[in-house]
Automatic annotation (TrEMBL):
Annotated SMART domains: S1
Annotated EC: 2.7.7.8
Enzyme class: transferase
Protein name per the record: Polyribonucleotide nucleotidyltransferase
GO cellular component, one term: cytoplasm
């Protein structure tokens, strides 16, 4: 192994002295190392390399001075030649401005302005006043690798770039828009941290322990600071734009940590205050189901939770809340009761729709035919479910034209039947049905049916 080989566990362990008199640097990582750590180390290595180049230029002022003297001698020689030719006929008598022949000299780390001359998704060519165009490689364009240069740049645009290397094999300068942006971002982030500002960022990827958020640089958001309530599954945030606060900024280590939970908590407090101030019993509110229990569902109303009790889910008997609602489902609910002192909110879902008997009476009338399922058999008849929460009675005398001794001689539990409606009694919530009426024979009159139903009710109460 080369003596100049170093084993790292993170970018913070890189030391500047490793790069003195070094022209080639290699980087090797194991297959299990996350991409964001590799990128962070690569960026840190290049930054150290830039600082070394700047330092070497400062350490050798005599070399730079000698280069400057050589250039000045060459310029003096050109001026003398120009003077010697003044007596000769000249086509253009304008004096040469020798300063215009001096091309700007850039060193790695310089921040300069550049004009876009060609845009591609692999590289961007820019004009910085040199003898040839400079190049911005795709990986040096943006911290968000999903952003395409062709989507955001046009020929002629003025952009800020950082000098990365003087010349490549084609004699072109290499620049980085990403690093120029990041340098400005670090300055702005320090100010944002001091002023406790809320900023926006796009969640790029899920990593061990949290998320990577693009806020201009790659910031880390711990899982514990991503949601109001801790959750181990944060995949739903990837690709989303989120509002966060900076809690740590370290430009030297190129580290930024952000907190979304803090912002969500502040928004929740504002939402709670607005809710109690503006909401009254009987109002209709919107919410999202966050948690299910045996006795109901807790609904997030925007910073404050309300309880949707199992008895208020629907008009029919609900055995488990999951039969009616699910996690993350959006609902419109009626506010049934408010208790500001206890901080309790009672919500109703069934109250948002018509009561089943009223809805049935609205849709059907006596003489109509309905479809249903036999759900219970008694000695005096069969009960048929025609809608959730509505059972109708087919009296034993209405099962067939012939005399029926036992109800289960004609129907059985689970059998689907079509029956004719004899009567809908909204006040007593009773529905009288008949199979016999569909057979063409005259059924019992209504008075007889009422008497039969009364007998059934008396027997049930005994």
């Amino acid at each position: 192994m080369n003596s100049n080989t170093y084993l790292l566990t993170g970018a913070a362990e890189i030391q500047a002295e490793w790069f003195h008199q070094v022209r080639v640097v290699g980087l090797t990582a194991g297959a299990s190392v996350p991409d964001w750590i590799i990128k962070e180390v690569e960026t840190n290595v290049l930054e150290k390399e830039l600082k070394i180049n700047e330092g070497e230029a400062a350490v050798n002022p005599e070399v730079e001075e000698q280069k400057t003297t050589d250039v000045e001698k060459k310029n003096d020689q050109v001026v003398e030649e120009a003077v010697d030719t003044q007596n000769e006929p000249a086509v253009d008598h304008e004096e040469f401005d020798m300063e215009s022949f001096h091309l700007p000299r850039y060193t790695p780390g310089d921040i300069i302005q550049a004009t876009v001359v060609q845009v591609g998704n692999d590289e961007i060519l820019v004009d910085v006043g040199q003898k040839s165009e400079g190049v911005i490689p795709r990986k040096e364009f943006s911290a968000d690798s999903s952003v395409l240069p062709t989507d955001v740049l046009n020929v002629g645009d003025e952009i800020t770039v950082m000098v990365v290397r003087n010349e490549d094999q084609e004699g072109r300068l290499t620049f980085s828009k990403k690093r120029a942006d990041q340098r400005q971002h670090w300055i702005k982030f320090t100010e944002s941290l001091n002023q406790n500002e809320v900023i926006e960022g796009k969640v790029l990827e899920l990593v061990k322990g949290g998320l990577i958020v693009d806020i201009g640089v790659r910031a880390f958001m711990p899982a514990s600071l991503a949601e109001r309530r801790f959750t181990s599954d944060l995949k739903h945030l990837v690709g989303e734009t989120v509002r966060v606060r900076l809690v740590e900024v370290d430009p030297e280590k190129r580290r930024a940590i952000v907190n979304r939970k803090m912002v969500l908590e502040e928004e929740a407090v504002a939402g709670r205050d607005a809710f109690w101030q503006n909401t009254h019993e009987g109002d209709v509110v919107k919410g999202v189901v966050r948690r299910l229990t045996k006795f109901g569902a807790f609904v997030d109303l925007g910073g404050i939770d309300g309880l949707l009790h199992i008895s208020d889910l629907d008009y029919y008997r609900v055995k488990d809340p999951s039969e009616v609602v699910s996690i993350d489902q959006q609902l419109e609910l009626k506010v049934l009761k408010l208790d500001p002192d206890a901080g309790r909110i009672s919500l109703g879902l069934k109250q948002m729709k018509m009561e089943p008997w009223e809805a049935f009476a609205h849709d059907f009338a006596s003489g109509d035919v309905v479809h249903g399922t036999v759900v219970r058999i008694t000695p005096w008849g069969a009960f048929v479910n025609v809608r959730p929460g509505i059972d109708g009675l087919i009296h034993i005398s209405e099962l067939d034209n012939r005399r029926v001794e036992k109800v289960d001689d004609v129907v059985s539990v689970g059998k689907e039947v079509e029956a004719k409606i004899l009567e809908i009694d909204l006040n007593r919530k009773r529905l009288s049905l008949s199979l016999r009426a569909l057979l063409g024979e005259e059924s019992y009159d209504q008075d007889t049916m009422d008497q039969m139903i009364e007998e059934v009710q008396e027997q049930e109460n005994q």
